[in-house]
Design brief:
InterPro entries: Catalase_sf. This protein has 247 residues and is an alpha+beta fold. It has helices spanning 2-23, 53-57, 154-163, 218-231, and strands at 31-41, 63-72, 84-92, 95-103, 125-126, 131-133, 136-144, 170-178, 181-193, 211-213. It has four helices and ten strands. The radius of gyration is 18 Å and the shape is globular.
Length: 247
């Protein structure tokens, strides 16, 4: 059984390395826009302010600088619909945490499944697979605080990043979902471009012992991320780079 798992992991890593090498980019979400912002945990009049498992696991109420990558999963041209993604790299005192989300349905059971769209501020985003936050298991998500129909496609986003985001930032509600449903536990405020051209995200290597994706499919997903980095020639992310990572 263990030998079969190792073969499957190696196969996934090799497959994703080959695909990334052929594409000269990530297998999924090949092109994106890198932006800086702030994650404000438990900010404003949020109901039941002491009940957030995610905020507690991330160290409590605070403001954290983040590097955000907005991207299209397939890479469709212009404003054509695609599965849109928001990846958030959170800079904590104890290390970095990478949170990957993608567009899902608007409400109810639809928020449990991916949904393509054309605008960055039209539908919610979700991790889809749950996180273990302390003793609780929950989904994490982002919801745009207002629709912005002009922001469709990567080029429109790049233009906004260079011209208007400082005065008119992208703002998303940071949410968690447990058995009681979705609740807002903070805000993600995206304010403009940064100098770096790209960044690597890995939610398994960049995690905390108290805050990490559940083990479901973790070995295969880790192999896919590592293979994609290797195939496109990106620097790998050593596990020891994050001293607080979950082992």
């Amino acid at each position: 059984m263990k030998a079969r798992i190792r073969r499957n992991v190696n196969l996934v890593s090799t497959l994703f390395a080959g695909l990334a090498r052929a594409r000269n980019a990530r297998v999924f979400h090949p092109h994106g826009v890198l932006l800086h912002g702030t994650l404000i945990l438990r900010e404003g009049p949020i109901q039941q302010p002491n009940s957030s498992a995610a905020v507690t696991a991330l160290g409590g109420p605070a403001q954290h600088p983040v590097v955000v990558r907005l991207s299209k999963a397939v890479g469709t041209p212009g404003a054509w619909p695609d599965l849109l993604g928001i990846s958030v790299k959170i800079d904590l005192d104890g290390g970095q945490v990478d949170l990957l989300t993608a567009t899902v349905g608007q409400s109810g059971w639809r928020r449990l499944f991916f949904r393509p769209t054309s605008s960055w501020c039209r539908t919610p985003y979700s991790t889809v697979l749950p996180y273990q936050a302390g003793q609780r298991r929950l989904l994490l998500g982002l919801s745009p605080e207002r629709r912005r129909s002009e922001l469709a496609g990567l080029e429109a986003l790049k233009h906004a990043a260079d011209s208007t985001l400082r005065e008119d930032p992208l703002v998303f509600s940071f949410e968690e979902r447990d058995r009681a449903g979705w609740s807002a536990v903070g805000r993600l405020v995206i304010t403009g471009p940064i100098a770096e051209s790209d960044a690597s995200y890995d939610p398994y290597l960049n995690a905390l012992a108290s805050f990490a994706p559940v083990p479901l499919l973790s070995r295969l997903r880790c192999a896919a991320y590592a293979g994609s980095r290797r195939g496109r020639g990106a620097a790998d992310l050593p596990a020891e780079a994050n001293p607080a990572a979950k082992r």
